[in-house]
Amino acid sequence: MAERTRIIEGTWNCTSCETRNILARHRSCPSCNNPREETGQESEFDFGEVDDTTGKSLREGVTDEKALSAANAGADWFCDYCSASNRGDSPICRNCRAERSSTSRALAEEPEEPIEAPRSRRPPPAPPPSAQGSGRKWLYVGLSLLTVFGSCMYWGSRTHGVTGQVTTTEWTRTVHRETFQRVSREGWRSDLSVRSSRMPVNGTGEVAGVDNIRSCFPRQRGTRQVADGTERVCTTKTRQEQCGTTEKCTRKKMSNGYMKETCRDVAKYCSKSYQDCDMRTRYRSEPIYDVSCTYDTFVWQPVDKKVESDRDCAPRWPALEPGPLDRLRREEKYAVRIGYEDGDTKEHVHEPRSETEFLAWKKGQSVPLQVNNFGSAQIVAGDAVR
């Protein structure tokens, strides 16, 4: 589309009398008649605010021939003798009438400004936090926590030796009596086959068997997914589509107090929702049937148990006589309590794994211990020292 061009006139501030917002067409201050010079930022022009969206200047463009002529005269130059600014097409200084020389400085051209110019009606949005900075921050936090954790673990793992004494030895023994009994169970007919049972001898050698399969009837065993045609499945998505045009403007300083603004219409895009559909296989649940039956078998059933416990003596098993179809199952648990002084009276409980290990401990025996700062104790070398 066609470009639209405007000339925007800037303003400057006099450093001699502090008069502000002087139009660029005035090369001398209207208040004190001091010529505009390169020093004191007098030749740094303000071109006003711009629209955030389009980048278009909010100032009106100049239309009078005199201002347009000054804008198209080229970059200003500064006199070598009096430092006054002059039109780019003027060979003689307007202030002191000195001729322009090859050493006369010209007001430097500046590159084209971005659309989102610095001077806008609204402050620019805050930049998003740097992912790298955020990641580095969490890295420091993690390293700090790791250092603290490591220091605590190092302090807690430091040990010192103490001598404890066996205060008591304890044991508990349990005998379970189980009998091989006939029971009724339910199962799927396809999984069952008749097998003869065999009774145990001295609690071993038994075979459970399967017998007397009866009361069979069909029952649902589960479900399965089967194809049932196709169906149209749609999901909502979004895409960018052109929805008209919007004006975008660029500006270029002309190094003489004027700025050339070029605007054009560019395509504008909007988010639009749409349905993305395809055909997929549809499934339905279908029941799976099997034949459920009742049958007889033999299992070990708990019948009785006896528990016996004591301290500071040799362990013994409680008396429990098995029948011809019984078996005995034994459990044993041992504990050695060791008292020691570490700031106050504390106790460490050691659990031997066998009767032989348990019988090695005697009440009153001395036990070397290593205790860490967390309060956890360990027996040195595993054996008590008399």
From TrEMBL:
Residues 40-52 have a biased composition (Acidic residues). Residues 31-53, 103-134 are annotated as: Disordered. One of its GO terms (molecular function) is zinc ion binding. InterPro entries: Znf_RanBP2. Residues 72-102 form the RanBP2-type domain. Keywords: Metal-binding, Zinc, Zinc-finger. The keyword Thylakoid does not apply. This is RanBP2-type domain-containing protein. It comes from Archangium gephyra.
